Amino acid sequence: MALYITDECINCDVCEPECPNGAISQGEEYYRIDPNLCTECVGHFNTSQCVEVCPVDCILPDPDHRETKDQLQRKYLALSGQATAV
Prior knowledge:
This protein is of the alpha+beta class and 86 residues long. The protein has a single domain (3-79), classed as Alpha-Beta Plaits (2-Layer Sandwich). Helix content is 19%, strand content 14%. It has helices spanning 49-53, 69-79, and strands spanning 3-5, 24-26, 31-33, 59-61. The strands form 2 sheets. A two-stranded antiparallel ribbon has the order 1-4. The protein is globular, with a radius of gyration of 13 Å. The two termini are 24 Å apart. The model has no long low-confidence stretch (mean pLDDT 94).
């Protein structure tokens, strides 16, 4: 499941540099996460780094983008160029 940032975001700028996939960017009012790039850090870390550093706990699982760990792993492999053609 991709993550998303709620409107409780205080724009502290700590999450964006922690994302290994470049999925986090500044939105109009607060930071946002691109669900097409978010793997919840699967393939990079054991935990979602943005969640770990967020001081206000405003990063949650996105109910509109449900993915299993296997799907997140496949997305990671595709994004990193490691996916093999079937």
